[in-house]
Write a structure and sequence with these properties.
With 445 residues, this protein is mainly alpha-helical. Helices cover 47% and strands 4% of the residues. It has 15 helices and 9 strands. Strands 3-6-7 form a 3-stranded antiparallel sheet. A two-stranded antiparallel sheet has the order 1-2. β4 and β5 form a beta hairpin. α2 packs antiparallel against α3, α2 runs parallel beside α4 and α13 packs antiparallel against α14. It starts with a helix and ends with a helix. Bound molecules: alpha-D-glucopyranose. Alpha-D-glucopyranose binds next to α2.
């Protein structure tokens, strides 16, 4: 498939899933608006329809909670075959909640980064788009600032300012083996009745197992019993984790937010204080020297989570790894065929979990398959540390997977066959960016 053909197919997927003011991640499996999906989708849209990209983001921020949280799902009227339904969360009428029906959780805060990147796209476009971008920035900046402030305070359980996750769904890596031990410690009691829909449109062996799903529901039930009160949640939720990917995305987004503040002539000292604090504590909290890996931290168990998932490369994207750590990550893990490199049982980069992890499973949701947005994020990180060849390999493989199997939700790293939803929006959105960026760098094949 040539570049033009792939571009037009990717745009067609975004049009297909366009619900007017937001884009569904996929038409059947995810019929509402998701937080980090919308941010990445907006970035794809910005490559060919900047006004529609602004609409996507405005629609996400309209659902911001009064306390600052930007929720992980915003429900649209009409689609009823999705679990959990809006009323399941019991978030309506909370004094600190949203004016719209939303979930009670948040998701990786990649939005400020995307908005900064959109500025570059706007500047490359017609001069007429530039004043509009500045106005848009002025409008969204206060929302970003209050969201980041909420993450660094309402989710700060230990005074480090590293936000905690209360539920695997907040990580964006919903079914990762990262959460297995923490979930195993939980015994779901008095589960409310529920009916899954997620294994109707997608093969059950590509979706979470029943005991894990019960724990997802149980955690949601616990949080709603606590009325989504920030302090009570930190004190009482049985699942409380600091995640390397989430904290890296936030740190990078803080850097971008500071740059946006400068562009608007706004004060930066508060954002600078978050940046400094994270730089001070990040490596101490997450780097495990014996293994040469960044590992998540389980605050309830007071111990690192000993699972090698590809989130371990995310600190490169945030500029938080020392050059020595970055080199170890690449040489000992990224390039290791027993873990992430093609060779032993895989052809494509980058498996979401190291292939030699006990929880690895090549087709199951977040347990091994390749995800396009992870390749895109980690490629940026590798470039930041001058690992250009490795970064190119991630973009090359992402494009090869999409060319071979279409814009799927995730891919089997062994043969590149597609898994999960079809016509998946953020895969298409990021394909647009990968094609545009690659053609700037290369001879334009
Ligand atoms: C899945 C993914 C999550 C994503 C959502 C919608 O739950 O794990 O990251 O936001 O689907 O695409």
């Amino acid at each position: 498939m040539n570049k033009l053909e792939m571009t037009s197919r990717a745009q067609a997927v975004l049009r297909l899933n366009d619900a007017g003011e937001f884009t569904k991640p996929s038409a059947l499996q995810y019929p509402h608006q998701w937080n980090w999906d919308s941010a990445l989708i907006a970035f794809g849209l910005a490559h060919f329809d900047l006004p529609r990209a602004y609409t996507e983001i405005r629609s996400l921020l309209r659902a911001q909670w009064r306390d600052g949280m930007v929720p992980h799902i915003i429900y649209s009227a009409g689609s009823t075959d999705y679990f959990p339904p809006p009323e399941f969360w019991q978030t309506a009428n909370l004094p600190h909640g949203s004016p719209l029906p939303t979930s009670g959780l948040t998701q990786p805060p990649i939005l400020a980064t995307v908005i900064r990147m959109m500025g570059n796209v706007a500047r490359l476009g017609s001069p007429a788009t530039q004043p509009t971008y500045h106005e848009f920035l002025r409008e969204v900046f206060p929302h970003l600032l209050t969201w980041h402030r909420w993450l660094h305070s309402a989710r700060d359980a230990d005074g480090t300012g590293l936000p905690c996750l209360l539920h695997p769904w907040e990580s964006g890596m919903d079914n990762s083996p990262l959460w297995a031990n923490a979930l195993d410690r939980i015994t779901p009691r008095d589960l409310p009745p529920f009916k899954r829909y997620d294994a109707i449109h997608v093969a059950p062996d590509e979706r979470p197992l029943a005991p894990d799903y019960e724990r997802f529901v149980y955690l949601t039930d616990r949080a709603r019993q606590l009325h989504w009160d920030a302090r009570a949640l930190l004190e009482q939720m049985p699942f409380l984790v600091q995640d390397v990917l989430f904290c890296s995305i936030l740190h990078r987004a803080d850097e971008d937010l500071a740059a946006l503040a400068v562009e608007l002539g706004e004060a930066t000292h508060e954002i600078e204080s978050w940046l400094q604090r994270t730089r001070k504590v990040f490596n101490e909290r997450f780097w495990v020297d014996e293994r040469g890996l960044y590992l998540d931290y389980d605050l309830r168990a007071r111990a690192p989570i000993p699972v090698n998932a590809n989130a371990t490369f995310a600190p490169l994207y945030a500029g938080l790894a020392s050059p020595a750590h970055a080199t170890r990550l690449v040489k000992e893990h990224f390039d290791n065929p027993a873990e992430y490199a093609p060779g032993v049982n895989s052809k494509f980069r980058l498996p979401s979990v190291a292939k030699n992890e006990p929880g690895y499973s090549a087709r199951r949701y977040w347990c091994g398959p390749v995800w396009i947005q992870m390749n895109w994020i980690i490629a940026q990180g590798l470039r930041r540390y001058w690992f250009a060849t490795e970064a190119d390999s991630l973009i090359h493989d992402a494009l090869a997977l999409m060319e071979q199997s279409g814009f799927r939700e995730y891919y089997d790293p062994r043969d590149g066959s597609g898994c999960g939803s079809q016509d998946f929006s953020w895969s298409a959105a990021l394909a647009l960016d990968m094609i545009a960026t690659r053609s700037e760098d290369s001879s334009g094949d």
